[in-house]
Amino acid sequence: MSFVDNVINTTKNVAATAGKKTDEAIRVSKLKFKATQLTGDIKAKNEKLGALVYEMAKSGEKDTEAFDVLIAELDAINAELTDIDKQLDGLKGVVACPSCGTKTDDDNTFCPKCGAKLPEKPAEPEPEVTIDEDKGE
Ligand SMILES: [Zn+2]
User: Fold this and answer.
1) Domains defined for the chain, CATH in brackets
2) Which residues lie below 8 Å from residue 98, measured CB to CB, with a gap of 6+?
3) pTM higher than 0.90 for the full model?
4) Model confidence over 122-137: pLDDT tens digits?
């Protein structure tokens, strides 16, 4: 169990009776932590990608397989990060404008900045990131 899991579990136990707001705060912390990890992963992959491009340029040999693998990995991480961002927005009651990206109250129908139609208010997001319960073992 990681340090963060311990902190989150401890917080959860202490605040077990504090209700929905606390659960939301825990989910936000957990999601933010995951987002930080993913951002670090993206940075590392980008560095690898840069090194690979440099090697290919220097050697004149194209390792397209390694290149494709890195691109696919980056796409997957980016998709996961986008999903987490959406979940965080849902918890905060905001929505990103599909046209200009401005974050605005999810009760709005139109973007206050560019006037684009905003997506329907999403349903309560499912808890994608599960909190490890102590199984008492
Ligand atoms: Zn907009």
Assistant:
1) 18-93 (1.10.287)
2) 116, 118, 119
3) no
4) 555 555 666 666 655 5
CA–centroid distance, 110 to ligand 1, in Å, is: 8
Residues 43-57 have a mean pLDDT of 95
84: CA distance to ligand 1 center in Å?
A: 21
Distance 85 CA to ligand 1 centre (A): 17
Using CA atoms, how far residue 85 sits from 23, 52, 119, 133, in Å, is: 18, 29, 15, 24
Distance CA 105, CA 121 (A): 9
Question: How many angstroms separate the CA atoms of 82 and 122, rounded?
Answer: 15
Ligand 1 centroid to residue 54 C-alpha, Å: 38
Distance from residue 128's CA to the centre of ligand 1 (Å): 27
